[in-house]
Each structure stands twice: as C-alpha cells, then as structure tokens.
Amino acid sequence: xxxxxxxxxxxxxRGSFITLEGGEGAGKSTQIGxxxxxxxxxxxxxxxxxxxxxxxxxxxxxxxxxxxxxxRLGPAAxxxxxxxxxxxxxxxxxxxxxxxGTFVVSDRFADSTRAYQGARGQLDPRFLRxxxxxxxxxxxxxxxxxxxxxxxxxLARAAARRRAGEAPDRFEREDLPFHESLRAAFxxxxxxxxxxxxxxxxxxxxEEVAQAIFEAVSNRLIVPAxxxxxxxx
Length: 233
Ligand code: Z5A
What we know:
By secondary structure, the protein is of the alpha/beta class. The protein has one domain: P-loop containing nucleotide triphosphate hydrolases (Rossmann fold), CATH 3.40.50. It has a five-stranded parallel sheet with strand order 2-3-1-4-5, with helices on both faces. The longest helix has 26 residues. The protein starts with 16 loop residues before the first strand and ends with a helix. The protein binds ligand Z5A. The site of ligand Z5A has 27 residues, from helix 1, helix 4, helix 6 and helix 8.
C-alpha cells in the first residue's frame, strides 16, 4: 500500500462484511466489480465472493440448487440446502478473511433466503429466523446494499445477459408475481433494519450506481473508522 492511503486494518483487527442483495438483473455482480476497485484504490484490502457458492464445497451445492432439482422437495428443504452452502462459505471464506482484517463483499447472503424461499409466505418466518440463527452464528453483515429496480427492467437485463441458447435458471423461470414479491421482501427487510441496510436505486447508469454505492460504504463504514482512528491517535 502506498503512503497516504487508509490503513483500516490498524483500526480494527476484523474486516467489514458487506452484502449486495436484490432481484434478478439488479446489477449486483457488475457493482461488486466497481466496489472492489474503489475499496482497493482507497487502500482497503477486499475480496469479492458470492452465494450460493463462495467456497469449494458451497460451489458444488450451487450447481444442485440452481439446477432446480431441490425445488421439488419444497421451500423448507431448499432453504436448508442454501443454509448448508452458507455454513461452508462462512467457515472457509468469510470468517478467515474478516479475521485477517480484509473487507468481504458478497453477492447475496442470508437476506436472499428470507426473500426467495420466504416469498409469498411459503415458510413460517420463525423457521427462517431459527435457520439463520443456527447458520450465521455471529457472522452478520455490517452493511447490506439492496439494489432496487423495477422487476420488468431487471428481468430484461437478465435475459439480455443470457448467452444465445442458454436456458433461464430455476429462479429466472418463476412468474412475474414471484419477482414482485421478491422486490417487496427486500424493501421490507431494508425498512425493518435501517441501521444495516441501505436501498440503492439500481435503475441509473452503471457509473452512477457505482458512485452511490461507494458513497454509502464510505459514509457507513470508512469515514467512521477513519474518525475513530484520528480520535485514538
Ligand atoms: N438464491 C436463493 O433462492 N436463496 C438464497 O439463499 C441465495 C440465492 C443465496 C443465484 O443466481 C440464485 O439463487 C438467485 C437467487 C437464488 N436467483 N436467480 N436467478 P445467480 O448467482 O446465478 O444470479 P443472481 O444473483 O440472481 O444474479 P442476477 O440477478 O442474475 O444478476 P446481477 O448480478 O444482479 O446483475 P449483473 O449480472 O451485474 O447485471 C445483469 C445485466 O445487466 C448484465 O448484462 C449487466 O451488464 C447489465 N447491467 C448491470 N448494471 C446495469 C446498469 N446500471 N444499466 C444497464 N445495464 C446494467
């Protein structure tokens, strides 16, 4: 790291955990690329990861989950398998990186289980809360950015991105009311947990959204850490 850059590891032994959430085609993967560049330019060590997946074991489960074969077993079984993948992701990737003082930026995390498997009231919220408690232990996001976009726009983006001849996956095949219920679920998570979540308007141009995201990360995580560093000499 060059001189004059921030050295946030000096402030806290633990890195910060940021998650990006939202419906189909909201631009999460694109924005994680921008955020990692911006964090690294600010001198902050950061890694990008994703769910389902993010560790060798969880990537194996990703293939099964996105094939749709678990959907036949019902939303409870699906939620349990997403959580099993999450346990491996936390243990093998997230916890070690945070312990090393690295920022971790994940494309989806536990809010996706709440929104997707809990969509349309398919699961008792008490079941989802219990599953989250068992799975996450103490690994909770410091900041969640909810990328919000009209459903039709997100689906059009996802369809345009698909390669010729490539079939939509298990979730892209769901109907419009399902995707509308997802959008509502993410917005209600943000409303219920305003200290953790920030809603980002994802309909703007890529660069505008990237700027809004970096401002949010700076205001919530970086500036307070720098102020703390200055105060403590
Ligand atoms: N799932 C679940 O059910 N339960 C769980 O607990 C978890 C996940 C963790 C993972 O799929 C699926 O698993 C997911 C939920 C479910 N559902 N699906 N499908 P995935 O990992 O394959 O995909 P995804 O997470 O759903 O990603 P996405 O929504 O399809 O895409 P995105 O990452 O949000 O967007 P993108 O790839 O960055 O951008 C999409 C396209 O839009 C692309 O061509 C970009 O160039 C373009 N784009 C991006 N930004 C813009 C702007 N600002 N303007 C115009 N165009 C843009």
